[in-house]
Design a protein that fits this description.
Blueprint (H helix, E strand, L loop, with lengths): L1 H8 L1 E2 L11 H9 L3 E5 L1 H8 L2 H4 L5 E5 L7 H23 L10 H16 L5 H20 L24 H7 L1
Helix pairs in contact: 5-6, 5-7, 6-7
Amino acid sequence: MPRLMLTASTRPLSFGSSLPDRLRPTFSQFEADGWLLREACPRYFLCWRNSALVLESTVPVAIFPDGQATLSVEERALFLLFELFRRLLRIETIKAGRQASAIDEPGTSRLLAGRAAALLWGDAVDPAAALRLLRQAELRIVKAVAGLWADDGQSGPAFLPPHLREVRPPRDAWQQRG
């Protein structure tokens, strides 16, 4: 059933012009190793990102946001690499018999952001700056979804991490959606 839901709510990852050519071999190698690389609209990406399939299983699948989140080329490239490395680390952690939640510590995010940035731009990039760019990308993805719930005094959908639940669209943006 999860595979059917995954197929229905995602599509194969497409690079188009939104990723540097130097990243294609990295993603192609993962696909050659049997990974399923998919992309979804921001809403489904957030749902899958926090699903049991991604958080608790060792199935080699990675799900990324598509172009609807309007990420810059740099944000998208860094975000995709970060998500791929995070998923790989989660699988390795589970296979080693450790709690997968251990990788959700802030230090791990900084390490993975630094690793992704080094692959993109070389070792001279500050991991903290890469992490800030990732957070900016994450915020853009959430803002792409933010218009999907009414300003009803709630703190956003429960599937969002707590630090992102307070993101709200401007009131006039909601009214323009009609």
